[in-house]
């Protein structure tokens, strides 16, 4: 006799009109630089394959040690190590075999770099283009997303080519004035999604035993990641969900280790979530585990579909 299985909730989601089979994917950052790592993501339950942020030319990144696991997350200053955008252009057709969205992360060191890469990837097998306005780790290069005039100028330049959905990876903001200013700039352009947030830039972790910072680049200043930043990510996602039209999708990023973390981002209004530090620490197994945990939470709360809980935060 076959036992009837209770219906599993539907975790499939749509981001920028592209279908995602589940709610959980990798963030640009850990373990997505080489072709082998991207195939590994293809074989995993990550809902998409997201690349490491690429630059015009290949980069080795910052000197080691540049990543340190912490009790509730990590600090890193990788400095955009990547193979250069042409390598990703070349490998994209080989990644289509996994039948899941391909997202290219682009992080030019100037507006012109971003223009060149965005126009090249517009003619590629990528499904979405995420342009990184928030890397804090290139010495001498400020985070574009904190300079509103340059953000506006960069968006004007990169949104002119092709129809592939283009989104922006934003830094964290901490002031309602800034949420509104950024939302108003985004609304002027055909931006189809945001990814919110990147690591909290330029934080400092000191080891009192060695009396030194725990990472080497930038005199120890680096991006803080993991559970430490989840409340900031939730606030940014929720603020932007309220300020942006629903046609602009939102990827939530920051401190997602469990189904409960993903559920909190869902309530805040995220259309899907990207996992970085947990994936760095646990490998591809985390995608299926977090999805299963999210599924159990939705079932327990009688949500049949992820969309029923999206943005459904209940205020006190
Ligand atoms: C890095 O490679 O330094 C991290 C990328 C980022 O923070 O955007």
UniProtKB/TrEMBL annotation:
Q: In which pathway does it act?
A: Pyrimidine metabolism; UMP biosynthesis via de novo pathway
Broadest EC class? Answer: oxidoreductase
Cofactor annotation: FMN
Give UniProt keywords alphabetically: Cytoplasm, Flavoprotein, FMN, Oxidoreductase, Pyrimidine biosynthesis
| InterPro entries tied to this protein | Aldolase_TIM (IPR013785), DHO_dehydrogenase (IPR050074), DHOD_1A (IPR033886), Dihydro_DH_chainA_dom2 (IPR023359), Dihydroorotate_DH_1_2 (IPR012135), Dihydroorotate_DH_cat (IPR005720)
- Dihydroorotate dehydrogenase catalytic domain segment(s): 11-298
A single Gene Ontology MF term assigned here is: dihydroorotate dehydrogenase (fumarate) activity
**Would the keyword Phosphoprotein be found if you checked this record's keyword annotation?**
no
Please report a single Pfam family linked to this protein. Answer: DHO_dh
What subcellular compartments does it reside in?
Cytoplasm
**Superkingdom classification of source:** Bacteria
EC number of the protein:
1.3.98.1
Q: Which reaction does it catalyse?
A: (S)-dihydroorotate + fumarate = orotate + succinate
Mind telling me which PANTHER family this protein's record contains? DIHYDROOROTATE DEHYDROGENASE (FUMARATE), DIHYDROOROTATE DEHYDROGENASE (QUINONE), MITOCHONDRIAL-RELATED
Q: Which family does it belong to?
A: Belongs to the dihydroorotate dehydrogenase family. Type 1 subfamily.
Outline the subunit composition: Homodimer.
Query: What protein does this entry describe?
Result: dihydroorotate oxidase (fumarate)
- In its UniProt entry, the species of origin is given as Thalassotalea psychrophila
Taxonomic path: Bacteria, Pseudomonadati, Pseudomonadota, Gammaproteobacteria, Alteromonadales
């Amino acid at each position: 006799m076959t036992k009837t299985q209770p219906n599993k909730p539907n975790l499939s989601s749509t981001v920028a009109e592209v279908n995602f089979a589940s709610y959980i994917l990798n963030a640009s950052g850990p373990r997505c630089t080489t072709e082998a790592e991207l195939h590994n993501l293809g074989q995993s339950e990550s809902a998409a394959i997201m690349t490491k942020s690429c630059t015009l030319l290949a980069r080795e990144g910052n000197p080691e040690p540049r990543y340190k696991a912490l009790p509730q997350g990590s600090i890193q200053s990788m400095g955009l190590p990547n193979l250069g955008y042409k390598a990703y252009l070349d490998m994209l057709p080989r990644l289509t075999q996994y039948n899941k969205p391909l997202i290219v992360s682009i992080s030019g060191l100037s507006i012109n770099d971003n223009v060149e890469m965005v126009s090249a990837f517009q003619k590629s097998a990528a499904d979405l283009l995420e342009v990184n306005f928030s890397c804090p780790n290139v010495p001498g290069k400020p985070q574009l997303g904190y300079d509103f005039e340059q953000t506006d100028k960069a968006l004007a330049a990169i949104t002119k080519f092709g129809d592939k959905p283009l989104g922006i990876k934003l830094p964290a903001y901490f002031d309602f004035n800034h949420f509104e200013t950024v939302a108003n700039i985004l609304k002027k352009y055909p931006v189809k999604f945001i990814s919110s947030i990147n690591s909290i830039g330029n934080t400092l972790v000191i080891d009192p035993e060695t009396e030194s910072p725990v990472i080497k680049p930038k005199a120890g200043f680096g991006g803080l990641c993991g559970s430490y930043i989840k409340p900031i990510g939730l606030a940014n996602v929720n603020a932007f969900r309220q300020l942006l039209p629903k046609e602009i999708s939102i990827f939530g990023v920051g401190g997602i280790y469990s189904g409960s973390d993903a559920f909190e981002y869902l309530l805040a209004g995220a259309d899907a979530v990207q996992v970085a530090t947990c994936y760095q620490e646990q490998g591809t197994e985390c995608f299926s585990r977090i999805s299963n945990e999210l599924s159990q939470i939705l079932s327990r709360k009688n949500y049949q579909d992820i969309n029923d809980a999206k943005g459904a935060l209940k205020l006190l």
